[in-house]
Amino acid sequence: MQYKALGLRAALAAAIFSAGTLLSWPTHAGGPPPLKVPGAEVRQLLGWVHATHDHHGRPFAVVDKKQAMLYVFHGDGSLAGASSALLGATPGDFTVPGVGERAQLGQVREDERTTPAGRFDSEPGRNAAGEPIVWVDYENAFAIHRLRPGRSEAARQARLESPRAQDHRVSLGCVIVPVAFYKSVVERVLGTTKSVVYVLPETRALAEVFGGA
Q: Which residue of 121, 140, 150, 171 shows the fewest CB atoms closer than 10 Å?
């Protein structure tokens, strides 16, 4: 589940010129639906990152909550891959104070299950079960991780494959991607070094969160 790698400038140009079309995606019986090209806000943010070198040469990722997508880039700006993602069940751009502590106790209320917007300095790590993850905001238990096995796995896999972005709103706030994509892209690019994660807003304007963009 990934694009062919492109330079950041080339990726932007390709997205702009192919607006309204569908990105190439490996197809097979029962596979995921085609992905739409990055939206205007994604392209705008990438242009700002390219112009300011805000990621300081580190690998980085962009989370588009409106389209339920995760884009992962190498430090040189080339696109490592993209995937649909599961996100916080409740729309919102802020982290509720104390949610990280409550998450460890399994006591996160429905209205607290947001995926916060902003720029985060992330780093690889492990959760309490020893599973490799990428900590986006350790204090608030906000991470990127793979789809986990269990009773909800089949239902969540179906949500990941749904073309409707609203079907992807189910997590406590973390960004969850397919196992294959996590292992081949996220773990390989973001899971070996410090990186930057940009989460686009959904209830606020882009300029409120990323003033330079």
A: 150
Rounded to whole angstroms, the maximal C-alpha distance in the chain is: 48
Q: What does the pLDDT look like over 27-61, one tens digit per residue?
A: 333 445 555 578 899 999 999 999 999 999 999 99
Q: Do 95 and 142 meet the contact criterion of CB atoms below 8 Å apart?
A: yes
pLDDT tens sequence across 149-163: 888 899 999 999 999
Q: 7: pLDDT confidence band, cut at 50, 70 and 90?
A: low
Residue of 136, 137, 140, 135 whose CA lies nearest to 99: 140
Structure tokens at 8: 């950041």
- The set of residues, in sequence order, having a beta carbon less than 8 Å from that of 38 and lying 6+ positions away, is 15, 46, 64, 69, 71
Alpha carbons 67 and 72: distance in angstroms, whole number: 15
